[in-house]
Amino acid sequence: MDPSQVKLPPIMDMNAETITENTIAINAGNQDPRAKYVLERLVHHLHDFARETRLSTQEWMTGIEFLTAVGQTCTDVRQEFILLSDVLGLSLLVDAIDHPKPPASTEGTVLGPFHTHEAELVVPGTQISKDEQGEPLLVLCTVKDTQGRPIDDVMVDIWETDSGGFYDVQHADKDGPDGRCAMRSDKDGRFWFKAIKPVSYPIPHDGPVGKFLKGVYRHPYRPAHMHFMFEKPGFDKLVTAVYDRVDPYITSDAVFGVKDSLIVDFWPLESAVATDYLSESERENISAWSILRYDFVLVSEEEAGSLRDLNSMAALARLGKRMKVYNGLPVPEVD
Amino acid sequence: MDPSQVKLPPIMDMNAETITENTIAINAGNQDPRAKYVLERLVHHLHDFARETRLSTQEWMTGIEFLTAVGQTCTDVRQEFILLSDVLGLSLLVDAIDHPKPPASTEGTVLGPFHTHEAELVVPGTQISKDEQGEPLLVLCTVKDTQGRPIDDVMVDIWETDSGGFYDVQHADKDGPDGRCAMRSDKDGRFWFKAIKPVSYPIPHDGPVGKFLKGVYRHPYRPAHMHFMFEKPGFDKLVTAVYDRVDPYITSDAVFGVKDSLIVDFWPLESAVATDYLSESERENISAWSILRYDFVLVSEEEAGSLRDLNSMAALARLGKRMKVYNGLPVPEVD
């Protein structure tokens, strides 16, 4: 770069007071108002964090080493930064901000690091788990809009662990997807499948995030749950999960995902229902089966967008900020 | 972990308002008041950043992917997270907080990611650069305390790039340390060596930090400089560098390191001085040589500690925080 072309504010003699506004000024070259605003708040909070703690060089280096270890723990099938975001409550917060839910709709929760795009598209009634140790479970669901109308052709992703508490991708010797599938809702908004009863399990805690949890005396467990993701053009993408009411970790989920409206009961499967959904050989073992029913309610993109803008403007006004919506996201009213 | 042993506040039904205090509560198991305070401020600022920007899931994922790439760019000889901290002004800020300097002393600046511990301990007068393309430079320095008394036996680390702007560790085929050394000050606080005149150079910008700089239209250049680090028991460790006054990037250092008091002039070497320091064969080419003189002033550990406490308490009081010093670092007065 030709130095004569440098169009930056002169940056010299920085100290603990001047560094923030100058960093923000030199970063302001990007003309996208949203990028500029996000970056400005990032630098502001990063610096305020250091100033309010009077962060020492040694603590800073501990942070550098921790983040490096988190990055180096990531692989194609392990996302330690998402895990870190999860245990710090950031994932739940971002979901709450970005996918606001009107009262009648299904609440969202954390995606977690184990969703993949390799689930097979299956037909209704498929058993999604190959784990013979798992307790068999019949799952009957519907998906509707906020007016109670069934939504057909919704792409539903479902994923759960095996009975040992591990997702397929956590097994080095895995042989194709297991404990996960994709399916489409039918014309009445129904979808159903066979699975295994979810179990509680620890999030991966042999890495830096596990060390962090240990350091603050937190356990790494998530209560038993099953993940669902719903996508259909015109509807706000819903990432959610349902949680087992009787799980011992139900009030201390390591990633803050549990919501009262997402807590479910697994009931013994009644033979009248079994007749409609299980094969003859499956029915022979009916006492081993449980049933889960859940009715999901999706929010339209329009509803979600309006509510998001409304919530954003209200929350930012409470913070004393004058903002406007730009490409669906807030930026300062006067830049 | 036995769930009956879980001694955590019940965490359920988290939303954008309640998630912060609950995350802080569940993290408060560590009884060290400093760790608790730092973590509390970290969660607070991380969440406020998301709330003030109304961070979208897509932006959050961009952040996750960016941090992952930063971590995965780190190697034994490349520290991309330090580079990120440098270009965000955090490194300079932490140095300013942790190593306060009374007026008469030498200011500190960013360490950067290229210090190593493999520099050879050399005798006075050693040529530390093997680069024959570099312009030869004689460096005459002293190191004193704030009362003007020479300090002997200070361990001084010195490092600079080659004439192409690369540190030894950036060459895949490097053959032992080059452009760096360690030496000790003599009984009169003097140390001197031969080197090459530093050149401006871009920080590594083929990775995620380089992409970030490009995205905000910042150049990756640092003005020509030479790094120095001083260590002696009883004195506050000084990490600093001196910068070439005539460098075109002197007011736009990519890592905010330049301070007026650290700007130097490289003068032509006078023959009267050359007689004392150069060999006969070196003197034959005297017109190629420059000279750099600099007198460093170290702060005692005691002075630095008192000033650090004083500055911290004053800065935190201005923020309306009632704090006390605990193991040399601030924690809330009433916890």
From TrEMBL, chains A, B:
<dbReference type="InterPro" id="IPR007535">
    <property type="entry name" value="Catechol_dOase_N"/>
</dbReference>
<dbReference type="Pfam" id="PF00775">
    <property type="entry name" value="Dioxygenase_C"/>
</dbReference>
<comment type="similarity">
    <text>Belongs to the intradiol ring-cleavage dioxygenase family.</text>
</comment>
<dbReference type="InterPro" id="IPR039390">
    <property type="entry name" value="1_2-HQD/HQD"/>
</dbReference>
<dbReference type="GO" id="GO:0008199">
    <property type="term" value="F:ferric iron binding"/>
</dbReference>
<dbReference type="InterPro" id="IPR015889">
    <property type="entry name" value="Intradiol_dOase_core"/>
</dbReference>
<protein>
    <submittedName>
        <fullName>Intradiol ring-cleavage dioxygenase</fullName>
    </submittedName>
</protein>
<keyword id="KW-0479">Metal-binding</keyword>
<keyword id="KW-0408">Iron</keyword>
<dbReference type="GO" id="GO:0009712">
    <property type="term" value="P:catechol-containing compound metabolic process"/>
</dbReference>
<feature type="domain" description="Intradiol ring-cleavage dioxygenases">
    <location>
        <begin position="115"/>
        <end position="272"/>
    </location>
</feature>
<keyword id="KW-0223">Dioxygenase</keyword>
<keyword id="KW-0560">Oxidoreductase</keyword>
<dbReference type="InterPro" id="IPR050770">
    <property type="entry name" value="Intradiol_RC_Dioxygenase"/>
</dbReference>
<dbReference type="GO" id="GO:0018576">
    <property type="term" value="F:catechol 1,2-dioxygenase activity"/>
</dbReference>
<feature type="domain" description="Catechol dioxygenase N-terminal">
    <location>
        <begin position="32"/>
        <end position="104"/>
    </location>
</feature>
<dbReference type="InterPro" id="IPR000627">
    <property type="entry name" value="Intradiol_dOase_C"/>
</dbReference>
<dbReference type="Pfam" id="PF04444">
    <property type="entry name" value="Dioxygenase_N"/>
</dbReference>
